[in-house]
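The data layer described in this paper is built around a simple, fixed record for each protein. Such a record has a labelled line for the sequence and another for the backbone structure tokens. For reference, a complete record is included directly beneath this paragraph.
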Amino acid sequence: MTTLPQNAGSSEHTLQDIQPAGEGPADWGVALICTAGLTVCMIYLYSLGPLIIPISQDLGWTRGQTSAGLTMVSVISVIAAPFVGYNIDRFGSRRIAIVGCILFCTGITSLSQVGSLYAWFGVWGLVAAGSVLMKPTVWMSAVAQRFSRRRGLAMGVALSGTGISAALAPVIAGMLEERFDWRTAFLGLGIGSACLLLPLLVLFFKDPVARNQDAGAQTEIAPVAGVSIADGFRSATFARLAIAGFCVNFTVIGLVVHFVPLLTSYDFTAAHAAKLASIIGVSTILARLVIGTLIDRFPAKLVAVTGFLLPMLACVLLLLFDGSQVMAVVIAMLIGASLGAEVDIIAYLSSHHFGMRNFGTLFGTITGAISLGIGLGPTAAGVTFDYFESYRPIFFGMLPLIILAVILIATLGPYPDHSEGSSP
């Protein structure tokens, strides 16, 4: 593996030149706002499952066409994520998150008005523009700036928002669709998300300000160590993390989005299937907190390998699925636990392998690969069902992807030595 050299220090401080300090109540408050941000930014993904069949039936589309909006989000994320990460490194998370929230919630609300496939993809483009400005890079950068000793737990707390979204979004979407229609579901999710998150961002989500002795600060803050952007991109570690992130999220998100349609093909009602899908969210929340604690105490690579094996087990059980409710609950728990492992571990490993100086750019680019998996997984699952009238072939295809991800993470080298500068 290529050794990551340390970036030379710079005389200029950016908003990222902040050492994690006391990890006090204010820092945990920011982590909780990041939890709310990640809850909102994932609703497009977790709410679509209960709505795929109603939308397809109402507008005469295939499941693959209905799911393809997620691919648009992923493609735009791949292109834009590195630039968003670069600007987070230079300007902080606050302004980017506020603009992203406005665009994203407007897009989700606008999905309620589409009537053609062209309009569907057009509005998903707006959702994608907002989504890329609210990706985990925004929230993980804000957390990593403030935490060192308990960084894993803090990231787990923030990323538990994805579990909250996985637990609530399908239930809310399914309830609104059952009581009204799928258009009302998108309308309620978009407006409700804006009312929840935007005030928190405007009033309380602040970036730390770099201060130095020349500015008259009482405490001198040394620059944060880390690799250069070029060295990070050239490293084998970057490629391993990006590919592993793609493989795991292709699998896990494909399972999440099509979990409700899968259950309905076994004579579960849509409402019952949505309630079972909420188990995924509850399991995700618990897994985020457990894994966040574990990676602060044990080698993160070992925790990652264990966590990445969970979706493999879920795929095996899905291949054996007989329609029983007990097995459906077990599969939902495994999928949720898998969701609790992917981004947390990739973010944690990135922060320690690359350092914090260019964390936004490097992890942001990895997030682009993750987003590609998020978009392609559900679309591939939908197209597979359209062609074979079964999800079984996609489950077989997911197994080697998980094996590859496990190998890539298991063969990561040790963390680079950043001791000459400020340690991340």
Summary: The chain is about 75% helix and 0% strand. Residues 359-388 form the longest helix (30 residues). The radius of gyration is 21 Å. The CA atoms of residues 262 and 391 lie 8 Å apart.
